[in-house]
Design goal:
single chain; about 525 residues; Leucine Aminopeptidase, subunit E, domain 1; elongated; binds ligand BES; binds manganese (II) ion; binds zinc ion
């Protein structure tokens, strides 16, 4: 099933749009408070026919325009559309681009189970929803909402929305809306690319297959790519990455994608080089420190950090910011085996420049993500990265601390962090800064090696971050722990349960903030 999204100018009025479902946004602009306050609703589109079709139900009070609330009217009088969908945007005073993204998603997710194939969404007319950002958000919301995780069901209903039209009212700048819509399509498709990979079972998406898909994607958007395996890990002396990889029958993949801005010349380029590093554990059994069986099937999504980075660079390749970007993905399974690494083993990480690799005492083979990332971060630095960002489903502890509400973000540099925080305003994703610090670093000191790979139960997200910090060194660096956020357990009106694609949009916006 192919979903096609097309933007369509509203050369004709909303009422003449002959689609199966026409969605319009409604807000609650109630200003009075107290017992006398009445619900006052406003359609965010100045179309007389739509207003008259919706008048009765709006007056009835049945529909309250709460965020993502919906109501379907059949055969609306005076409209060519077969159905009119009212989508709530909540209170007018709190209107936001992010609410609009969700509302567009809600419209698509309302259409899917009803078997409706064509949806049109009227771009709201409101000063706090500027054309470019609004159209971008609608495209994102709609495309993200079309994704469902039931890829492998043989009785999968053909539920996709084939056509999604954005109706741009005459009062809104069409060129801006068109540009925003095009950008939103790129971003959402990149995020869906990440979600497709995260959704794949471990037997399908092995490290080798992840490498093939990354290469295919790189080709399609014009990125340079290299995919290496065991031999290269040995050559680079990636003892930490190999320590994890050697217990699996599936060979590891070291994936490197490079984006060079237009006119890039290595001899003269003086701008930043951004290193994107992803944890790509295609299945995490825990290794010899094996996980309990309950919920182990979820550990196919332990490559969500790498999928996020691949998604981000996929969008970067198309949006072409004027900054160089390198993406390094360290992919392997973590398995128990006769050749697997064991608690008590000491691994030697990749050397950094002329410094020998750090030695790592293994306490728990289930703390494998930090090991593969250690070598990934060192490798990205050796390739010239001046700034680093990594994403990983690194710790259960981050989920305990922040719930499935915020991702964890750590940074060794306030300026770099500030740029990430600013990126969140555009992306609409939620991350909360958690602490690094010497006292956490102290907890991963080892008696017999430079460091050990776990720091005990307490402060587990921060001790894991301090482990990575050793390998990021002084390079300005951001670590995103997305373990709690990469998988959505229950569907919401605007997004399906399953892989979320978290971090794609924020990493993309962070990268774009370095444009000269
Ligand atoms: N992949 C897990 C973390 C994880 C947990 C991701 C839940 C998604 C959902 C990671 O490799 C891991 O096992 N971490 C351990 C670290 C511990 C052994 C120090 C954890 O969080 O328990
Ligand atoms: Mn693990
Ligand atoms: Zn893991």
């Amino acid at each position: 099933m192919k979903t096609e999204l097309v933007s369509s100018p509203l050369s004709s009025p909303l009422s003449s749009l002959a689609v199966e479902l026409l969605a319009v946004a409604v807000t609650d602009f109630q200003t009075e408070k107290g017992p006398d306050a009445k619900l006052q609703l406003a359609l965010l589109n100045a179309d007389a026919a739509v207003a008259s079709a919706a008048a009765e139900v709006l007056a009835s009070g049945e529909f309250k325009a709460g965020a993502n609330e919906t109501l379907v009217l059949h055969a609306p009088a005076g409209l060519a559309a077969k159905r009119l969908l009212l989508v709530g945007l909540g209170k007018a005073a709190k209107l936001s681009i992010h609410g609009l993204r969700s509302a567009a998603g809600t419209a698509v997710r309302a259409a899917k189970p009803r078997g409706l194939r064509e949806v049109a969404f009227a771009l709201p007319e409101h000063e706090s929803l500027p054309a470019f950002a609004a159209a971008r958000a609608v495209a994102e919301g709609a495309l993200l909402a079309d994704f469902d995780a039931d890829t492998y069901r043989s009785d999968r209903k053909d539920q996709g929305v084939y056509s999604f039209k954005l109706a741009v009212p005459a009062s809104v700048d069409f060129a801006s809306a068109q540009a925003g819509f095009a950008e939103g399509e790129i971003v959402a498709e990149a995020q869906n690319f990440a979600r497709v990979q995260v959704n794949e079972p471990g037997n399908v998406l092995t490290p080798t297959v992840l490498g093939q898909r990354a290469a295919q994607m790189a080709e399609s958007v014009g990125l340079k790519w290299e995919v290496h395996s065991t031999e290269k890990l040995h050559e680079l002396q990636m003892g930490a990455f190999w320590g994890v990889a050697k217990g699996s029958e599936e060979p590891p993949a070291l994936i490197v994608l490079t984006y060079e801005p237009e006119g890039y010349d290595p001899a003269t380029y003086t701008g930043p080089v951004l290193g994107l590093v992803g944890k790509g554990i295609t299945f995490d059994s825990g290794g010899i420190s094996i996980k309990p069986g309950d919920g182990m099937e979820k550990m196919k999504y332990d490559m969500a950090g790498s999928a996020a980075m691949l998604g981000a660079i996929c969008a970067i390749g198309q949006l072409k910011p004027s900054v160089k970007v390198i993406c390094v993905v360290c992919s392997t399974e973590n398995m128990p085996d006769g050749r697997a690494y064991k608690p008590g083993d000491v691994l030697t990480a990749m050397p950094a420049g002329d410094k020998p690799g750090k030695t790592i005492e293994i306490i728990n083979t289930d703390a494998e993500g930090r090991l593969v990332l250690a070598d990934g971060l060192t490798y990205a630095r050796s390739l010239g990265a001046t700034h680093l960002i990594n994403a990983a489903t690194l710790t259960g502890a981050v989920g305990v601390a922040l719930g499935k509400v915020n991702g964890g973000v750590f940074s060794n540099d306030d300026e770099t962090f500030a740029k990430f925080q600013a990126a969140l305003e555009t992306s609409g994703e939620s991350f909360w800064r958690l602490p690094l610090g010497d006292e956490y670093a102290y907890l991963i000191k080892s008696d017999i090696a430079d460091i050990k790979n776990t720091g005990g139960r307490y402060g587990g997200a921060s001790t894991a971050a301090e482990f990575l910090h050793v390998f990021a060194g002084d390079t300005p660096w951001i670590h995103l722990d997305i373990a709690g956020m990469a998988w959505i357990d229950e569907s919401r009106p605007y997004i399906a349960k399953g892989p979320s694609g978290i971090a794609v949009r924020s990493v993309l916006e962070w990268v774009r903030s370095y444009q000269s």
